[in-house]
Specification:
8-stranded parallel beta barrel; 8 strands
C-alpha cells in the first residue's frame, strides 16, 4: 500500500520524503490556507519536494466549466499535480473532461459505492472515500473500502482507491487489509505507526542492560 501524507506542511513532507516512505501528497484548500503562504506558491513548493510523486491540489469552483478551467491552471504548476474535484455531478463532468486532456484527477468526498463506481466510469485516477467521517456518523467507514475494492476488481477499473479521513493507526491497518491502494495520512498518524508500548519497554530494558555492562 502506498502512503500519501495529507498536509501542506513542507517540513513534514520533506522529512517523509527523505526517509523514502512518501509516495505522494494530498492537500485541500483548508490545509493550504493553514500554511499562511500564497496557495500556488505552497503547492509549487510541495511539488518540488515530492518531485515525481503525485500531489493532489483541489479546485474551489463548483460548476463544471469553472472546475475545468481551474484544474487546467493547477496542472500548469507542475507535472506531478493531480487535480482534486468533489464527487458532485459537476465534479464528475469535470473529471471526464480533464482526463481527456491528459490531466489526472482525484475525485474526493466519496461516501458510497455508487459514487465510486461513477468516478471510475469517468476515468478518475483516484477515488477518495472518507472513512473517518462515515465513522463519525456511526457507520463503518472501512466497509466502504471493501465494497469499492470488490466493484473495481469485478470490472478491472484502473482507478486507485485512496483511503482518506484516516484518523488512527488502526484505520491504516484496516485500509491495507481491505485492499486500498493508498492511505493518505496526517503526519502525526504516520509517526504513530512506528509506536508501540512494548517496543518502548523492550528498548528501555536493552538500554538498562547495556548500561550495566558498561559499568562493570
Amino acid at each position: 500500500m502506498q502512503f500519501f501524507v495529507d498536509t501542506a506542511e513542507t517540513d513534514a513532507i520533506a522529512e517523509l520524503s527523505e526517509m523514502g516512505i512518501l509516495d505522494g501528497v494530498t492537500t485541500n484548500p483548508s490545509l493550504v490556507m493553514k500554511s499562511g503562504k500564497n496557495p500556488r506558491t505552497v503547492i509549487a513548493e510541495i511539488c518540488r519536494i515530492a518531485a515525481g510523486k503525485p500531489v493532489s491540489a483541489e479546485v474551489i469552483a463548483t460548476e463544471a466549466d469553472a472546475m475545468v478551467a481551474e484544474g487546467e491552471s493547477l496542472a500548469e504548476i507542475a507535472d506531478n499535480i493531480v487535480v482534486k474535484v468533489p464527487l458532485t455531478w459537476d465534479g464528475l463532468k469535470a473529471c471526464d473532461r480533464l482526463g481527456r486532456m491528459g490531466i489526472r484527477v482525484n475525485v474526493t468526498l466519496c461516501f458510497n459505492a455508487n459514487q465510486a463506481l461513477l468516478a471510475a466510469k469517468v476515468g478518475a485516477a483516484y477515488i477518495s472515500p472518507f472513512v473517518g467521517r462515515l465513522d463519525d456518523l456511526g457507520l463503518d467507514g472501512m466497509e466502504l473500502i471493501h465494497e469499492i475494492r470488490e466493484i473495481y476488481d469485478n470490472f478491472d477499473f484502473p482507478t486507485e482507491i485512496l483511503a482518506a479521513s484516516i484518523r488512527t493507526p488502526l484505520h491504516v491497518t484496516q485500509a491495507a487489509l481491505a485492499g486500498a491502494d493508498v492511505a493518505t495520512v496526517p503526519p502525526a498518524v504516520l509517526h504513530r505507526l512506528a509506536q508501540h508500548p512494548l517496543t518502548d519497554k523492550g528498548l528501555a530494558a536493552f538500554l538498562a542492560d547495556a548500561a550495566k555492562i558498561k559499568s562493570d
